[in-house]
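3.2 Worked example (two chains)
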Amino acid sequence: MNEPPKPNRDRDRNRTLPYDPTERRIRSFVTRMGRLSDGQARALETLAPRYCIPYEKSAVDLSKVFGRTAPTVLEIGTGMGETTAHIAGLMPEKNFMGVEVHIPGIGSLLKLVDEHGLQNLRLIQHDAVEVVTHMIPPASLAGVHVFFPDPWHKARHQKRRLIQAAFVELLASRIAVGGYLHCATDWEDYAVQMLTVLSSEPRLINTAQAYAERPSYRPVTKFERRGLRLGHGVWDLVFQRR
């Protein structure tokens, strides 16, 4: 396996994903310039060779990636990694693969991997749609988490939302029968769209009448807690693969 390049702080602060002319679609994210702290840089240098997987246009062997055969859960958009690390720590019997485009977030999550001694977590710094399309084998996942994706709240930008019919169809093809797709958002109109899109995918069935109670494994983040204090809603959707 090729090792990812060692971090250079000045370069990585302004890092963008390499342009691939074969990938022509509307992106569901923007590449933000974020400060790479000393701790994140050290984590990238010392831990990325072990825990990060280079993006490739070929399916990965998950048992080789993790060094064992176990149910694998994909998390799309790990942010700064607190939720991902928490869930991976709760479920050591499962493998977790996190996908995130922003390198400071990868560095932050690698720090948590080290601090908590997590051996069941691997990371890919790349666009999730391309990762799912090319790297994840069909029917190989026990679950997928998509927590608080960018809501693109302006009407003219909503075509950029990640949870669209085509991507849900792709995710359903990668989830094994009996596996699940868990989405969460704090934007009500996005929750409505998610419910419509997920309910329209024939390979998925809703585990609730509409929105689900927050599963105990998903922690309440500090931003979510602040929103709840302000009276904002949070909607969880958990669908199972038929």
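3.2.1 Second chain
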Amino acid sequence: MISFYNSVKNMKIDKSAKLIARLEARYRKKTPKSLRLFREAQKVMVRGGSHSIRLFSPYPFFMATADGPYVRDLDGNAYLDYWQGHYANVLGHNPKVLEKEFRRFDPEHGSLHTGFEGESQVRLAELIMSRLGYRDHKIRFTTSGALATMSAVMLSQALTGREGILKIGGGWHGASPYLLKGVNFRGSEGFGAADSAGIPPAMLRATHVTRFNDVDRLERFFKKSGDKIACFIVEPFLGVGGFIAATRDFLQAARRLTEKYGAVLIFDEIITGFRFCPSGLQKLYGVEPDISTFGKLIGGGHAVSAVEGKAAILEGKGAKSKIKAKFEGGTFSSHPQYMRSGYVMLKYLFDHAGTVYPRLAASGDAVRTRVEAAFRAEGIEAHCTGRGNDVVPGSSLFMVNFPRTEHAYAAAEDVWDPALSDVRLKEDILKIALLTEDVNVVHGGGAISLAHDAAAIDRTVDAYAAAARLFKKYLF
């Protein structure tokens, strides 16, 4: 086995440049219409688009249609897609169960937003709350994960009268100014730096970062600063941070310490909610947070997120401030069609839980194992994160990493520190290499849906194998 670190440390830069140039030439040849439209977009849109993560180098392809595991671009190329609507489409693109519901949706509601309360939101709320099963909890819908996590933090500060926020290094909770610190790894600063200009310095000072799955560090932090912390926000399964499951001990320690020091425990389940089991991942861990945020799956492919938690917190009761926190859902919250779509999606998952979740887990295990083997066949060391653990029975998420050293993948540092893993190879070179093989990934992998059948997985593994052969030829 070739250690990527040992092979790359003396590699000349022109080797990777030659490979990238070849791949980009192939990509440009197959996507001329996307290139033309991107140039038009650059004239009128910031960086040529509406979401930075979609604007990869040298330019993004533009979608024409999407169905099941595939997305087709303007030039007619069909890509096996593992982005799947920012990981929201667990049934695949435009699944028949949702399309059928759209066709029969009550026409008296129309398709435009009215700004009134409707029955569909009540039914979706009941469905979610029945699966969580907590007493004295309530829920409110909004339209994005960033708004949900921002509201959760603000409610925590209002309740406790404290400003301090604790989060995980590498944890992404949307573009809320409260939480735009410690998302990106920055050299000697690690995950301790701000991720955006324009954030008030006082807010940055109030936000603290700790290491995922490190119980000792968490205990030391709370012993020193626990009485200043309003909340600890954590994903039970790291998303952008590396697709890594929390240990049971870590989440139990989080619950124990936040209770001891009077802080609010927030679980960000925007990605994880209902993806691993027919409930929040928190139910598998047996840890009840004070507040949870949900999104992605609960909207059935639409702009829906939610803040769920103890009614006393969400309704502002017992807040130390005389002014309650302004917890509004937003103009387009609880759109009736979106609420109904979310209901249909979750009801399908619940009714078919006995087959859906084992199949997703088996597909995830197959992809991770076979992709690692494809690189190993070329003498290249690769490690796929996304596996479950003694709590999480299986996972449909995968992220391909290229270790420079022998180390465990237990926290975001293990994935994003370029001294430990080759980030450029995963993020830039692998991305374009797979696109030329008609596979679309983000961060080296992505989310497997029910629409990804055995044939799709075979094609995916073949694409990774082709990338491995190129890497061996040009980089080793």
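3.3 Remarks
The CA atoms of residues 341 and 445 lie 27 Å apart.
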